[in-house]
Amino acid sequence: MAAAQVWSVDPRTGRRREQVAAEATAGEVDGAVRAAHAARAQLADRAVRAAFLRTAAALLEKSRDALVETADAETALGPARLTGELARTCYQLRAFAGVVEEGAFLDVVIDHPDPAATPPVPDLRRYKIPLGVVAVYAASNFPFAFSVPGGDTASALAAGCPVVVKAHPDHPATSELVAAVLRAAAAEHGLDSAVLGLVHGFDAGLGLVRHPLVAAAGFTGSVRGGRALFDAAAARPAPIPFHGELGSLNPVVVTVAAAAERAAEIGAGLAGSMTLGTGQFCVKPGLVLVPAGEAGDRLVGALAEAVAEAPAGVLLDARMRENFLGGAAERAALDGVAAPVAPGAAEGQAVRPGFLTVPAARLTGPGAHDALLEECFGPLTVVARYTDPAEASAVLARLPGNLSATVHLSAEEAHGGGDGPRLLAELTPLAGRVLVNGWPTGVAVAPAQHHGGPYPATTSTSTSVGATAVERWLRPVTYQTTPEPLLPPELRDDNPLGLPRRVDGRPEHGRLEP
């Protein structure tokens, strides 16, 4: 039987644009993984890896116009958004090049023998080594930053791991173009093209996570799809780490004092955040706890005005549109739920943004509306009106893990007064990133960033954004009483590579490679 064809589809019209590839057969998946496995040694040199990442960024920038045009045709995300996303992606590649050059990610620790310790300490030297081939599952909503050239790929390559990407069916042509650019960058530094493999198809995705030579996996997508792959990774004869970003409601709490102080500002800010990218951000605020009463009414009024003026938009594919419309209608039909601005279908393939309101009491206790505590992907948020702090806390206590949790405080509360400390204490267990007086959409690429959270936000405690994302693809190994000539250069006393490290409990600063 011939392999199924992979088509690029225009979400604005629903029409096929071009045939891009064929779904990978089991043999082709096996070939891509084995070729990547054979290329591992080519990524051993940190200087080569760093140069490769920098060249990849430069070539992506050089190809910007063609990449953005194709990505827009496949995702309808718009040239401005995609141009910014590509710039972020290139910045991230260069940031990981810097991580590689610095070398701190190797976490070198040396303990010389100490016979006086209890028990005696032998000569111990520890650092981290690459796991091996990493399978990356591209996201639908970020065709650059969380797909073929995105954070999972960049951090894995930085760690010294070859990558095989399972392309997302919403942007296969973009995936092929980007993969060609990355392979061209690899070739400039004498690296085999197999350090970056690309496969298409649902079965290919399952084949990847089950392949015995795949050592770890990174995923960004739905709870259903991610959990199936997570379970497959755990069910292998030799289970592997599966770092999945699955789903997040990203709750927001607005205090009474904050609503009284700046209702219009918060309402407008919420509208901008929940409609950004047609509501297709993984950190879109999906549940907002707003106080009942006059100040909360003013906030909801400002939100309604801004959302009503927001343009309709096209979702990434027809299935997502259908799920959004069905999910919004199901939620709006629940008892006690109102729709000040009703979400729904718009002209052609577009959808209208909207929001729902509900008394917070309907989210707890017998007969609670559990559907309102689940993510609805697209331009929709739920505003739950609470009558007192205990009611808001009761809702928060029912929430699963999230990527982000936000609180809007008054000026006095932000300086430590009122409910600020209590709310931060309640929100911190819920999420990997806690925001005060901001909005979660937009995840900065920075060393202190954490993009992850308790399940189902992610399946591990790691981050997929920021310098420490590289740690997902490494494992520690210790050498004991090993003669100096047999040690890796990273662990020798003379520190020939100039790495930052800790020796006998004291930090030693390394040197940056030119």
Helices and strands, with pairings:
Layout: E1 5-10, E2 15-22, H1 26-38, H2 46-62, H3 64-75, H4 79-102, E3 108-111, E4 124-130, E5 133-137, H5 151-159, E6 163-166, H6 172-188, E7 196-199, H7 202-210, E8 214-220, H8 223-235, E9 242-245, E10 251-254, H9 256-275, E11 287-291, H10 294-309, E12 313-314, H11 318-332, E13 338-341, E14 344-345, E15 350-352, E16 354-359, E17 380-386, H12 389-396, E18 402-408, H13 411-414, H14 420-427, E19 431-436, E20 474-480, E21 501-503, E22 506-508
Parallel strand pairs: 3-21, 5-6, 5-8, 6-7, 8-9, 10-11, 10-18, 11-17, 16-17, 18-19
Antiparallel strand pairs: 1-2, 3-4, 4-20, 12-15, 13-16, 14-15, 21-22
Helix pairs in contact: 1-7, 2-4, 2-6, 3-4, 3-6, 4-5, 9-10
Amount of beta strand? 15-25%
Oligomer: single chain
Total helices: the number is 14
Low-confidence stretches: none
Give the overall shape: globular
- Helix coverage percent: 25-40%
Radius of gyration: 25 Å
The biggest beta sheet reads: 7 strands, mixed
Q: In angstroms, what separates the terminal alpha carbons?
A: 53 Å
Write out the strand line-up for the largest beta sheet, numbering strands in chain order.
Answer: 13-16-17-11-10-18-19
Number of strands: 22
Helix-strand makeup class: alpha/beta
